[in-house]
Amino acid sequence: MNLMNVVEKEYAVTNNFPEFKAGDTITVHYKITEGNKTRIQQFKGTVLQIKGSNHTQTFTVRKMSGSIGVERIFPIASPFIEKIDVNKRGRVRRARIFYFRERTGKSARIKERKY
């Protein structure tokens, strides 16, 4: 028996987040602690990539703040993530859409996936 698998099962965190992929627009509700106050901050943007597996999985979200692009990496097993809302499902052909960083204007739009 592999010792790493035993440790991973012991520290496994189960979160009931919706499934999302690269190209989806999501809102991450993240707990912020300032001094002795705790508040929830929303980070809404497009998912660039999902990386890793199990409890080491992370996802990168990019949003435009004014004319400056802001990226943030969230661990999926973080206790600070309150919830994740999927606002829009995007249709992209790659799992990691780093080309999205250089796009502006009409070329920065992602088509919506229809169900």
Descriptors for this entry?
mainly beta, SH3 type barrels, 115 residues, five-stranded antiparallel β-sheet
Question: Overview of this structure, please?
Answer:
- By secondary structure, the chain is mainly beta.
- It has one domain: SH3 type barrels (Roll), CATH 2.30.30.790.
- Helices cover 7% and strands 43% of the residues.
- The chain contains 1 helix and 5 strands, in the order H-E-E-E-E-E.
- Strands 4-3-2-1-5 form a 5-stranded antiparallel beta sheet, with no helix packed on it.
- A hairpin with a 2-residue loop joins strand 3 and strand 4.
- The radius of gyration is 16 Å and the shape is globular.
- The relative contact order is 0.24.
Rg from Cα: 16 Å
**Level-2 CATH architecture:** Roll
**How confident overall, as mean pLDDT?**
91
* Biggest beta sheet attributes: 5 strands, antiparallel
Number of helices: 1
